[in-house]
Amino acid sequence: MERYDSDAEKDEQQLPLLHRRQDDKVHRAPACCSSRYGLALLSSYGFFVVYSLRVNLSVAMVDMLNNTHQSSSNHSGSMCTPHNTPVQPKHNQSAGVYNWDSATQGWILGSFFYGYILTQIPGGYLAGRCGAKWLMGFGVLGTALFTLLTPLAADLGASYLIVVRVLEGVGEGVTFPAMYTMWASWAPPLERSRLLTISYIGAQLGTVVALPLSGEICFYMGWPYVFYLFGAVGLVWFVLWAFLVFDSPNSHPRISEQERLYITNSLKNELSTSAGHIPWRAIVTSMPLMAIVVAHFSYNWTFYTLLTLLPTYMNDILGFSIQQNGFLSALPYLGCALMAVLSGQVADYLRETRLYSTVFVRKSFSLIGMIGPAVFLVAAGYTGCDYSLAVTFLTLSSALGGVSASGFNINHLDIAPSYAGILLGITNTFATIPGMVGPVIARALTHNNTIEEWQVVFYIAAAINVFGALFYAVFGRGTVQPWAVHSTYSHGD
Fold it and tell me: For the CA atoms of 30, 32, 34, 36, what is the dihedral angle to 10 degrees?
């Protein structure tokens, strides 16, 4: 018994079934100690670094500001009874503090995304032309180096810090497109959900660790050490990446022959050997790609709104201090990481059993991973000062979002594996816009920091999420598109 989406049923019965039969003929290489799962773990470490370097400034900013007026007003505006705040120990106070107004703070915090959006599409293109390994490696390395320069830039002035953050964004902008390009050569079709969710769980773990740890580092050591320590972690990753990772199974000197044949044979009918021809017109007019764009944009509206403003909500509404809400703000992303890995296992199992088509799995997981978070996000706005219930609903909202990691989030590899990096660059370009405008709109709507104002913010995010899920459910596809394999046949491969 097979369940298919009515519009994609014919496609699902042709090319993917051929791939499945070929996969069955190839003896599968064990996962334990394999090169492909080693790549998944090391790339996960890389995305841990990427997100750690992205979110640490939002926590360190609290310590970087001249807080002579904050100690008396830290909780004075909270809607709920404030919680007791531990006494901060004395530490080295040589680090500077700055009198940046709210507008300057906004530019500093948002400047990362202005660099990030610039290199999404170029990153996908360059990964295919120049090799994904070094593009990914130098992207993270550059971000780590600029992170180490952050304290110096802050001392020189806000404009210097803004430039450094923009350059960090430029470096990080190539990482996701580069990694998608690499997975197009490394991930067997029936292991994509597992491998990619392991890989990208690092982003969630980076948020989970960086939010509370940055608060602790600021609390006990001083804010400059946030950038020194996380920057050093990035340098260690680059050394491991440079020596242990290779662009493809065929270029890996230590991969077993069994695993190399398993990967290359499972992908031989999906990858184009034409690196020079990119069907730009077909790509930009593809409705399956547009479905991913809309879903990615919609999901990121909620994700970036919470990533940027959840500590503010914890402080202004629920009355938790910066140190306390660093841990509480991390809980939703821990739940998201766990659900992402679990959903990857379930998604690949459903596809392996052949009871469900790829398109059915992708759409189902996207609906759960987008509508579920919308429901609990709205519910969180009606918990009042029930701290436990509010944190529970916010955690459930973000955790269910992790299910979408096996939905639209890796659908690029299903519809066009040869151009997955370019497609990810396109979708991530649009998906970066919510990080630039979503929090600004949210702060404009919460001028008085009332629960009613935050309810409006949650309703807007939920509505956008639901719209994106429904749009993807209608127009999403799960098979390689004709334009993605045309160059293969036209070149006689």
Answer: 90
- State which amino acid sits at residue 10: K
Q: Determine the Cα–Cα distance for residues 399 and 373; give it in Å rounded to an integer.
A: 8
Residue whose pair of structure tokens reads 């298919």 in the numeric block:
4
Secondary structure letter of residue 88 according to DSSP: P
Radius of gyration of the chain (CA): 23
pLDDT along the chain (493 residues), means of 10: 42 42 56 86 95 86 66 49 60 70 75 89 85 94 96 93 94 91 87 86 87 84 92 96 93 90 82 64 93 95 79 73 67 85 87 85 94 92 84 89 89 86 88 83 80 90 95 92 63 30
What is the identity of the amino acid at 8?
A: A
Kindly give, in sequence order, each residue whose CB lies less than 8 Å from that of residue 416, ignoring residues fewer than 6 positions away: 283, 289, 423, 480, 481, 483, 484
Q: What are phi and psi of 78, to 5 degrees?
A: -70, 140
AA identity, residue 253: P
Q: What global pTM score does this model have?
A: 0.74
Instruction: Measure the N-to-C terminal CA separation of the chain; round to a whole number of Å.
Output: 34
Q: What is the largest CA-CA distance in the chain?
A: 73
Could you give the CA distance from residue 144 to residue 172 in angstroms, rounded to a whole number? 10
Please give, one letter per residue, the 3-state secondary structure of 212-225: HHHHHHHHHCCCHH
Per the CB < 8 A criterion, the answer to whether 395 and 310 are in contact is: no
Using alpha carbons, select from 405, 429, 53 the residue that is nearest to residue 199.
405
The shares of helix, strand and coil residues in the chain, as percent rounded to the nearest 5, are: 75, 0, 25
Are the C-beta atoms of residues 137 and 247 closer than 8 Å to each other?
A: no
What are 331's two structure tokens?
């809980």
CA 431/CA 295 separation, integer angstroms: 9
- Partnered with residue 65 across adjacent β-strands are 98
Distance CA(251)–CA(130), nearest Å, equals 14
Written as six digits, the tokens of 178 are 């580069």
Instruction: Please name which of 145, 124, 143 lies closest in space to residue 50, comparing C-alpha atoms.
Output: 143
- The CA distance from 192 to 233, in Å, is 28
Question: Any residues with CB less than 8 A from the CB of 274 and at least 6 apart, and which?
Answer: 487, 488, 490, 491, 493
Helix axes 358-380, 322-352, angle to 10 degrees: 160
**Cβ neighbours of 114 (radius 10 Å):** 17
Rounded to whole angstroms, how far apart are CA atoms 25 and 176?
32
